[in-house]
Amino acid sequence: MIILKIKDSIKSKKYDEALSLIDEIPEIYLTSEFLLLKGICIQLSDNSNYNLTDAELSFQKALELDPTNIDITLELAWLYFNVFDEPQKA
After folding, report:
1. 37 neighbors 5 (Cβ within 8 angstroms)
2. What is the rounded distance in angstroms from the CA atom of residue 18 to the CA atom of residue 4?
3. Structure confidence by residue, pLDDT tens digits, 64-89
4. In contact, 3 and 32? CB cutoff 8 Å
5. CB burial class (10 A; 0-12, 13-18, 19+) of residue 62?
6. Are 3 and 33 in contact (CB under 8 A)?
7. Which regions in the chain score pLDDT beneath 50?
8. What count of other Cβ atoms lies within 10 Å of the Cβ of residue 40?
9. What pLDDT, on a 0 to 100 scale, did the predictor assign at position 22?
């Protein structure tokens, strides 16, 4: 199962590998969980194909799909507060 491969890659700190796996998933099959993991990987990766705005967009799309998911909300708030230094958005 693809989600297990992605989580194994993340656990092994292979964030670029996890991003590649997520990018292979057709957009119509991207769930809030995939988008959450993508945002996390973007933040932790050295992949130059992505920037922190891509992480923000991934979290926002995940929230659109699952607006009550606290994990997504916390990740987005953490990004705003600690990375973008925008506590009012957090």
Report:
1. no
2. 10
3. 999 999 999 999 999 999 888 888 88
4. no
5. buried
6. yes
7. none
8. 20
9. 97
